[in-house]
Write a structure and sequence with these properties.
mainly alpha, Growth Hormone, Chain: A, two-stranded antiparallel ribbon, 2 strands, 76% helix, globular
């Protein structure tokens, strides 16, 4: 098995080396430096994009709220942003396998630059339909960038280095979420300081510079499959990837069914929080969530050396997660202080949810062959996006019918479904046996 990392070759873009085991003692120093350099470049590109993603969301929400748009109208601005995430992840992995992960990463960053520019170019064009279209473009860009960055990590870690793979993907994912929360703050600050249009232009210029730097530093054809992949292979997955994707659908649906619409409305309408309090609290939650994701390898450190989490780990933490929305619902039903119950409960939910998410992000790379990693990650994030979309729609509908309590109990049901899907995921011993059986 091979991984990317040596100095670029004029013909092939990169020299391939072969190593087995975890942190092999004979690994050459130049190869280590190349792997780390490529990982840092991908992380930098992902960071730069993530800041603009958080900022543009906050800019659009606050700007159109200030223009007098209703909450429902503002929500519709993001409808295609979420919907196209499902479609993009379905085909993005296929495109990445055919053209290389570099290509999909660059296209994603370029589309975000275009979306920022088109939203800034003329304030008279900012109708609901126009903004929905360019937010859809931004959503496509986000998922292309995310799929490319996370798939690339698999190619930068030696085969069998499970603990290193877990650490690198956890840092990438956790730092991304913390920076997304930072992007919320940045968008609010830029809107207050330089206005909507100038804020968008500033973000576009910054991301364009990051794109050019990334193109100059990354090796060519990274992640391109050695043999041609067929479009029908998008839905032809191993049972591990199918079960994990199902668990991912319900995991993210369990969060968004109460976090996206129900929670902000509850904090504002029932607890009487102002917009800045609600936005600041949710941004801090996302930042803290990201820090926990990045720290997950340390929190889940296995006493047996060189092993990351496995299927039973995912199942255990999913069952633990179900306790927290249930606990918040019970606390509210017993008349406990709602603000305190929400803050403590949401904080605990965020910690356990972040660990669940990190375990999933590691397992999808573990279960993927290097030659098919882009397609597998794309399929997996298609399930992720579908779960978010279902959770977002249910969040408004269930809250309108049954309030926050109803959303919390639906969240419990979703988490339990994620745990049940995780039952079929293999243990360390089962996975090693399957590795040895595969040709």
């Amino acid at each position: 098995m091979y991984f990317w990392g040596a100095a670029p070759d004029p013909a092939k873009g990169v020299v391939l080396e072969s190593h087995q085991g975890d942190d092999p003692p004979g690994l050459a120093k130049p190869l280590d430096q190349a792997m780390l350099r490529n990982y840092l470049v991908v992380t930098f590109a992902y960071w730069a994009f993530t800041v603009t993603d958080g900022a543009i969301r906050m800019l659009v929400v606050l700007h159109f709220h200030n223009l007098g748009y209703t909450p429902l109208a503002v929500a519709f601005l993001f409808l295609f942003y979420e919907l196209f995430g499902v479609i993009t992840n379905a085909v993005g992995g296929y495109i990445g396998s055919r053209l290389g992960l570099n290509t999909t990463m660059y296209v994603g960053m370029a589309m975000q630059v275009l979306a920022l520019g088109m939203l800034a170019i003329n304030p008279d064009w900012l109708s609901v339909v126009y903004v929905m279209f360019w937010m859809a473009c931004s959503g496509i860009a986000k998922d292309l960038n995310k799929m490319s960055a996370k798939s690339s990590v698999k190619l930068m870690v030696p085969e069998g280095s499970d603990s290193k793979l877990f650490k690198w993907v956890a840092v990438l994912t956790g730092s991304k979420n913390s920076l997304k929360g930072g992007g919320f703050f940045l968008g609010s600050a830029l809107l207050a300081l330089i206005g909507f249009q100038n804020a968008l232009w500033s973000l576009a210029v910054g991301l364009l510079m990051a794109l050019l730097l990334t193109m100059a530093l990354l090796p060519k054809d990274m992640g391109k499959a050695k043999s041609k992949v067929k479009f029908t292979q998008i839905f032809s997955k191993s049972q591990e990837i199918n079960w994990l994707s199902g668990a991912r659908f319900f995991l993210f649906g369990s969060r968004d069914v109460w976090f996206v619409v129900a929670l902000p409305v509850y904090l504002a309408a029932v607890l009487g929080w102002g917009h800045m309090q609600v936005g600041g609290f949710l941004a801090l939650w996302v930042i803290g969530y990201g820090f926990v994701q990045a720290a997950a390898p340390g929190l889940l450190r296995n006493r047996q050396e060189k092993r990351g989490p496995d299927g039973p780990t995912a199942r255990l933490w999913a069952f633990i997660l179900a306790l927290f929305p249930a606990g918040i619902a019970l606390a509210l039903s017993r008349g406990w202080d709602p603000a305190l119950s929400m803050m403590i409960g949401l904080g605990a939910f965020g910690v356990v949810f972040a660990i669940n998410s990190s375990v999933h992000s590691y397992l999808i790379l573990l279960y993927s062959d290097r030659d098919k990693v882009a397609m597998n990650v794309g399929f997996y994030y298609m399930a992720n996006a579908a779960g978010r979309l279902a959770g977002t729609v249910l969040s408004g509908w269930i809250y309108q019918l049954y309030g926050l309590m109803g959303c919390l109990w639906v969240s419990v049901a979703f988490v339990l479904m994620a745990a049940l899907f995780s039952v079929r995921l293999p243990s360390h011993e089962q996975w090693q046996a399957r590795r040895q059986e595969s040709p």
